[in-house]
Amino acid sequence: DAKTTQPPSMDCAEGRAANLPCNHSTISGNEYVYWYRQIHSQGPQYIIHGLKNNETNEMASLIITEDRKSSTLILPHATLRDTAVYYCIVRVEGDGNNRKLIWGLGTSLAVNP
Amino acid sequence: NAGVTQTPKFRVLKTGQSMTLLCAQDMNHEYMYWYRQDPGMGLRLIHYSVGEGTTAKGEVPDGYNVSRLKKQNFLLGLESAAPSQTSVYFCASSYAAPGLASGQYFGPGTRLTVL
Question: How far apart, in whole angstroms, are the C-alpha atoms of residue B72 and residue B91?
């Protein structure tokens, strides 16, 4: 099962793009990359996921390298409300219906005024 | 849509007391999960369900029981609460199994303190 490596913390200026990296060098060919975030005292929030191609939605963009060993979550214009812990997940245990996401500690992003 | 809701939001128990946490989702999702989150640790899966009438153990199931009598509801029970069960509990749901192309949608959490 793939493991992820994320920096424990990052800072970003309000209005600038926040680029959050994630290394997953042991990812398998059929494993998705998921990103979630958790704002203080709230439940985690699903952001985006991808397999091979870059993905974009109303919240963020996900850039996956061609070898799939790393990815970057991009918040194009960070606001103070984007201050949160961001989780990159590729590790899934089990098979079939009995799959479980394995959560790490994520990156604590601070967006500063 | 309300999404995923949890009741109660806060609870204080004494050691040995029992309680049930209720999770409800209105997205017609098949999969539902109960996690706990403790300081300095990632989310840990307690129990999960792959459909109405089914339950399965996660990483840390001891001391908890669950039931999924209706598709939209997933109940987490503590039969005899212990201080080690002081935590924040999150319920989540998804339309497909983890690891497939489906995100999980979380409730706001229940903060439980066991004295």
Answer: 12
Which 8-state DSSP code applies to residue A29? T
Chain A CB contacts of B2 below 8 Å: none
Structure confidence by residue, pLDDT tens digits, A85-97: 999 988 666 666 6
**Six-digit token pair at B53?**
């009438």
**In angstroms, what separates the C-alpha of B52 from chain A's closest C-alpha?**
13
Q: What is the pLDDT of residue B6?
A: 97
Distance of alpha carbon B101 from its chain centroid, rounded? Answer: 22
- Give me the phi and psi of A81, to 5 degrees please: -70, -10
Percent of chain A with pLDDT over 70: 90
Residues A76/A17, Cβ–Cβ less than 8 Å:
yes
pLDDT band at residue B114, thresholds of 50, 70 and 90?
Answer: very high
Cβ neighbours, 10 Å, residue B27: 13
**Any B CB within 8 A of A44 CB:** yes
